[in-house]
Amino acid sequence: MPPRKPAETDGNLAKPATISDVALLAGVSVGTVSKALNGRGSLRVETRRRVLSAAEQLGFQANKAAVALNSGRTYTVGMITTDTIGRFSIPLLMGAEDALGAGEMSVFLCDARDDPIREQYYLRTLLSRRVDGIIVTGRRTQARPPIGTDLPIPVVYAFISSADPDDCSVVPDEAGGAAKAVDHLLGIGRRRVAHITGPEHHHSAAVRAAAARARLSESGLTLVAPPLFGEWSEAWGRQAVQILLGAANDLDAVFCGSDQIARGVADALRAAGRRVPDDVALVGFDNWDVMALACQPPLTSVDMELEKLGRTAADLLLAAINGDPAPGKHANPCRLVLRDSTAVPIAPLRARD
Amino acid sequence: MPPRKPAETDGNLAKPATISDVALLAGVSVGTVSKALNGRGSLRVETRRRVLSAAEQLGFQANKAAVALNSGRTYTVGMITTDTIGRFSIPLLMGAEDALGAGEMSVFLCDARDDPIREQYYLRTLLSRRVDGIIVTGRRTQARPPIGTDLPIPVVYAFISSADPDDCSVVPDEAGGAAKAVDHLLGIGRRRVAHITGPEHHHSAAVRAAAARARLSESGLTLVAPPLFGEWSEAWGRQAVQILLGAANDLDAVFCGSDQIARGVADALRAAGRRVPDDVALVGFDNWDVMALACQPPLTSVDMELEKLGRTAADLLLAAINGDPAPGKHANPCRLVLRDSTAVPIAPLRARD
DNA sequence: TTGAAAGCGCTAACAA
DNA sequence: TTGTTAGCGCTTTCAA
């Protein structure tokens, strides 16, 4: 039988080189290799060079499991989405993944699909894998029960928030976003503002509607009609316009709870012979490019800056992992993105920002 | 000072219990605990019970790093999306994650963001973490260079495919999908079919257009006008309709390369006074609910079954990890989803399927 | 400056 | 049936 290397043909089973392989090739001990590779201790330059070149030659990559075993750190975090990953979760995940990757952390993706059983299963799995921390996200901003108590590692909630005020949650400032939308409409001279949004029991719908009302009332105004609660769809947007035109025919602006609704509203207004923005200015929420850009005209919209939010969550998690936790609810500002649906051809009263 | 437990207050630094903790509590050796927990060897029922209860009491979860270290398996796979994670990647990821989770594997999420440098960085990271396998996905179905050569672990390409025919790739049968769309249009009696799609250089656009043509020609027909290549947007769909109505005013069906295009087409046709589906039947591609359902009328569309595709990729990867690789390109059939845009009020010639 | 050896938490072979 | 021990790959004292 051949002496050394087993089954040279099936390159696919070649075991990765270990630190002893490197030591052997460099003619030193494993301890020395470890020092050379990690820049610890003091070695002769020549020795270090020899080790590095041996490692290079073997394509050596330290086995992270071994490292984890005696450092106690895995440089790994878990990301649990409580409900199905969707449009809102993606930017969150991306932002977090990006920030964590920069910190040399790898991310375990866990999709709990609205199933508490799965959620707990993933939690156990992550703990068993000794992740250094966990980010919990969800598709709604509403507070949820903590995912666990007395966990041995830090947890940060992103977008969604924990019902325990001592937990660290990073959420969009939806009320602030709604206020910005209203401010903008007022800034371009609109006074008869309507609000169309999603289901009344939906946290985001309620918060945004309340904030819009509050902001108007600060200016001594009211909504031109009570908020129209319905669903998060274009169809509802269209339908709501019919209701609205009956109730408040003289409206000059509509602030919508979502871009989808706003798009339906735009279509229905056009069909009814109202020009956007000339007769009616229109603001959406989410700044979902697919909707906002395809809308005719393109839609001014509130952006929750989800990617940045994910990044913030990740940064807070990293800080907590390093012993510097930031408990409490952190609100991230929203940003208003201006487009044609609120562009005033001849500006009667320019907004300041 | 208190005798036993250190710093009871900061529950957050409590180190997870180890197997020796369990052994101590149960009054047995670590070997016995291992056997009891893994159902190996033969133990007295009473002993096993005692160990299990001790483990339970301590909330013991085996440290996966240690397990990985001596089994050589991490029960972990990497998922690299070569381009930014988006609408197409999600269902793929979800399907794969689901199938892998069922196999007790955890998934590392890696978003390479169209950057080859990041891609190679992630590859090295994953190898260093000794993942058992890797799934590579992308937003385009076009073949791409292999992510690495002579890798020590199996790789499966999903949606995107590897340029190396010996690699394992799972792709949607886009040509088959396009054929189904055309068949359906012919089945409901349409004969003057047009095709509007994305950029000519885009692999999917080219494949779908070619397949549509081929299928028509099998029936002795041709497209009512040369395929209109443009971009993947509603605006292009609208614009293309203007061109089309000039060139082939008597068309009775449009097959579109995407749902977004199709939606633009629907809007423009309506604006031009053509009824859908009565005058012109309409089929999209992607079955993207947001577009297909919001379209007026709701859109018949080709579904690439991305989630199933992700699942298949994961299954093939698991098989490969277990020593049973399935090299080559595997085409997954598409499914035609029927909606109102091809509903024939009075069926003149019912399709068979 | 380098090597030897202990130990991280667990499994498996072997002994008792 | 149970315990002891070697070792997985690496880091880190401590000696040499």
From TrEMBL, chains A, B:
Domain HTH lacI-type residues, every copy: 17-71
InterPro entries for this protein: HTH_LacI, LacI/GalR-like_sensor, Lambda_DNA-bd_dom_sf, Peripla_BP_I
Record flagged with keyword Transcription regulation: yes
Keywords of this entry: DNA-binding, Transcription, Transcription regulation
Pfam families linked: LacI, Peripla_BP_3
UniProt keyword Nucleus present: no
Entry GO MF terms: DNA-binding transcription factor activity; transcription cis-regulatory region binding
PROSITE patterns: HTH_LACI_1, HTH_LACI_2
PANTHER family attached to this UniProt entry: HTH-TYPE TRANSCRIPTIONAL REGULATOR GALS, LACI-RELATED TRANSCRIPTIONAL REPRESSOR
Protein's recorded name: LacI family transcriptional regulator
Species in which this protein is naturally found: Actinophytocola oryzae
